[in-house]
Amino acid sequence: MRLVGVQKSLSFLFQKDSRHGRIMAQSSGSNTGKKLIRIDVSSDSVCPWCFVGKRNLDKAIAASKDQFDFEIKWHPFFLDPSAPKEGVNKREFYERKFGSRAQGILARMTEIFRNLGLEYDMSGLTGNTLDSHRLIYFAGKQDLDKQHNLVEELFLGYFTRGKYIGDREFLLESARKVGVEGAAEFLENPNNGLKEVNEELEKYSANISGVPNYMINGKHQLSGGQPPEVFMRAFEVAAK
Questions:
Q1: pTM for the complete prediction?
Q2: N or C of the chain: less Cβ packing under 10 Å?
Q3: Which CATH code for domain 36-81+129-239?
């Protein structure tokens, strides 16, 4: 299995320093007369700043929907491609990884999530995210709204309910909630979506140093958990 260009340390989870809302991704064939903003998001399912960034992006889209139509596509990134599929204790993993800094990092993320109306939960397991990316790809082939909403469900489960991102039942539960059909059959074969995930890694993630990363209309790039107003300014620039 190739995981090209993504040999990144999990420490990047906490390198970004910055500050929700459901969106409906409009198709490129929209007849509303509004300019279309296309956003390609590179993200990993265990990256807390990716969840923060998604919530802030959703706020910006909600505030800009009278001006623009939006098309959002999610693409894979692996903070730790060698992470075990069986999972490891999340809290113990971060304590080993960050040592004496772990408690400070946890306190900071707890505060940031609370400001979003969420409770940051360090219980449960962390580990390999490949199956989540295969499922996100599969959802996007059905409908971009379903893909966007699936990403939200996966983030909510992992970061606020102690769910393991590699647990098949959690993945299928999330897929059912957002209306993704055929997920069980798709995930049953470990080769389904693997080629496409690797292709997206090469196309969207090989040349970035971390996530979240946002490419707007193919030429304007943002990274990190940016506040809504930064996204809104980027929409304006991209529309010109």
A1: 0.86
A2: C
A3: 3.40.30.10
